[in-house]
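Listing S7. Sequence submitted for prediction.
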Amino acid sequence: MKARTSTDRLQEKTPKKLVTNHLRQRYKFSPVIAEALSDDLQLLSNQMNGGSQLTDGQVLYPAVKAEEPAGKALKDCEYEMVRLTIYAQGDIAYRQQHGLKILKKHILHRITEESDAQGAPLTYEDMSRLLFADRKTIAQYIQELRAEGKTIVTRATYTDASATISHHRPIVRLFLLNYTESEIGQRLNHTLSRVEGYIKDFLRICVAHRQGYTVEGIRHLTGLAKGVVQKHLAHYTELSAAPNWQEHLERKLRFYEASMDAKLAKKGVLG
């Protein structure tokens, strides 16, 4: 019989397994009934948490909404319960290949992207708490990640007077994560028309860029300002270079391109 590795054993340490074993030992349920009840409890838990649909390794964490101004007392701020992936299935193998420090930086990059996408970027204190590291270490990790060319968005990025982060970033990212326009508007406190406008501009600009148009060409094609085109293209470049976002981005753009081709064919523009 093949010996079980530490990785195999760790894969069994899931919340579902914990609940199943508890039900079996405490109430003497059969394995089948205990597992079924564990599934039901997970569903109930998700419903009680606002349909957060947490997966193994994810947590709900209260983060201050991006639009809250700097200097406002925390007790008076509005919060968003963001889903953060503290542990993903590939993290064990990633650590074995790269080491613990690189894994921590990888997780930090992941949770800052997730929180930014949900409209509530993390503070340095949030990251310190979530990763069990002091603030100085978090600052060092962020500095190193940025030096590697990665974009790290924190609450300081929004509250810094010199920052120029636009609302389009969290809107586009929630769209890529399959939130509806209505859900995005509710989460980020934007009107539906504004959300739809940001998404439409992003898709049109990205598709034109993929078809070989220059910035000036896209500007004339869409009627948008040059600065708007450059802003969305910079975001597209950032997303397309990030492994966590590549698949989401490609899926949405392929769907949009296909829908545009169908409309043109219906009008007789395409043969």
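Caption to Listing S7: primary sequence and predicted structure tokens for the chain studied. The longest helix spans residues 243-266. The radius of gyration is 22 Å.
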